[in-house]
Amino acid sequence: MKVWRTPLITLGLLTALGTTAFAHMGPDMQSRHGQQGPRTEKMHEFMAERHQKQLGELKAKLQLDPGQENAWKGFVEVMQPPARGKAQTDRSALEKLTAPERIDQMMAWHAERETDMKKRGEATKVFYAGLNADQKKTFDAETARIMTGHRRQHGHRH
Questions:
Q1: What confidence score (pLDDT) does residue 110 get?
Q2: Percentage of residues in the chain with pLDDT exceeding 90?
């Protein structure tokens, strides 16, 4: 029985600390749980501006000809970030669900994100197919740079 006591005490303390830490989070920090604070809204505005800037820079570097404009517009339209809050629910609403219902909700959100990623991937492939060899090299280099910058920002290692 002694063997189980220490891990159970540790688990209890970690649970209590985690719950307490979440309870003390300010409104600016609770955005991951469906609540939007002013800091989160500013971050979303910044990210949207940066996204538009990156697309503008990419378009300039690709030097698209007039025949490629429609493909570009279709690509940009699909690449827009999804509307915020579409798949977010208030924390209190999630707490009212049973564990299996929360899992189902999370699976639905995951499926929605996966569908969005597939649409973006297909749009990218269609747009890419219409580029000439030099444009493809530029597109490859620029999107790799953007993606590795994004990964570094979020703490992922290569």
A1: 93
A2: 42
Pair of tokens at residue 146: 């953007």
Report domain extents, the chain.
91-158
Nearest to 62 by CA among 80, 81, 75, 49: 75
For residue 31, the model assigns a pLDDT of 44
Would you tell me the crossing angle of helices 69-79 and 38-62 to the nearest 10 degrees?
160
- Tens digits of residue pLDDT in 50-65: 889 989 999 999 999 9
DSSP calls for 94-144: HHTS-HHHHHHHHHHHHHHHHHHHHHHHHHHHHHHHTS-HHHHHHHHHHHH
pTM above 0.70, yes or no: no
Around Cβ 75, how many Cβ atoms within 10 Å? 20
Q: Which residue in 86, 148, 91, 77 sits closest to 119, CA to CA?
A: 77
Q: How far is CA 65 from CA 70, 77, 135, in A?
A: 10, 18, 11
Give dist(CA 9, CA 4) in Å, integer.
Answer: 9
What is the Cα–Cα distance from 106 to 30, expressed in whole angstroms?
18
Give the pLDDT band (50/70/90) at residue 84.
low
Q: Are 58 and 51 contacting, i.e. CB atoms less than 8 angstroms apart?
A: no
